[in-house]
Model the fold of this input.
Amino acid sequence: MTEHKGHRAGWSLVRDPKLLIPFSITVIALMGTSSLTPALPTIARVYGISSEEIGWLIAVFTLPGVFLTPILGLLGDRFGRKTVVIPSLLIFGVAGSACAIAPDYETLLVLRTVQGIGGAALSALVAAFIGDFFSAEERAHALGYNAGVVSASAAVYPIIGGALTLLSWHYTFLLSVLALPVAALVGWGLPPAAATQRETFGDYLRRLGSAVANRSVVLVLLASFVTFIVIYGVLITYLPFLLERDFHTTPLDYGIVMAANAVAGAVTSLRVGSVMRRYPGRKILTVSFGVTVIAVVIIPFTGSLPIVVVACVVLGSMQLQVLAISQILLTELVPVAQRGAIMAVNSMAFRLGQTVGPTFLGLILALWGLDMVFVVAGVLSLIVTPLCALIVTRR
Done:
């Protein structure tokens, strides 16, 4: 496998096109939800659907990743990353842009499902690209910079989506066309990586099973799953409805709130390494979920927009911390030979949470109202809080 040699860091590494192009893929991968959420109340009104039904617009996009992530990862190993990434970007761009002219909500859901197929493996394959083309020392810097791109995109997209929605909700979908030039950049700018992994899919599934045959691994995966239920079910899908109902905010206002949430998460995640040197990961997870319970439950009952914003900022800090620590703990809990497999399982947990969050909490909304969406999310976080204390690592 080709590996980019050298001992560079800082801006000299950032300017390497072999890294800048994966950055572009990351930006596209995050576009599918973050830029769309400010438009959800408007889209619900345009198509004449209920606020609980709008959750399917997020769920059908994330659902394909639950099943396709390990399959596409294996195909990337066997036939090269570019062979998977370029078609994925093309599907993402064409289907996502077509959503702007969907004549009815059913057609929109079908197009979003197709777009989700295109986006299923993008984030996972970005890390693989970086691993293919950079040496061990550079790889750590490169992955760190990519995490910064993730945080920056999560901060900027809600503002962009909110501003575009004020012009027309169609424009939020047309952003997806940017995936097409990125596909061209991948084809032109990155050499093919040698495909070295030749295990069968059965062997791959056996490694997946072996990786999760550990109580602590299961608990960490559960923490990731519930975190994504809160992020996608509460913050991304139903928070804009609450802000509009209680404070008469605009889509741009919601974008600014979510930008503050993302910035808080980015700042916190940068300190995870130093915090883990002082405290065990299980204790940090326990405290993070305990704080999440308070922050998410207070949102529908405070009646104060500044307090809601503070709660969202706190949630951003806690959730990004949980996700970063979960990945670190998984690398400690499994042998090196199983780390690739466990990261695939973790990606599946992410996608499952992204899918279950909007649909399950949409059902709660239909049964008991919008306020109970936040209460139930708090209860789920409360259940996970004591379980995190049972995680045991080798160090």
Summary: The chain has 19 helices and no strands. Residues 246 and 303 are 7 Å apart (CA to CA). The chain has two domains: 8-198, 206-395.
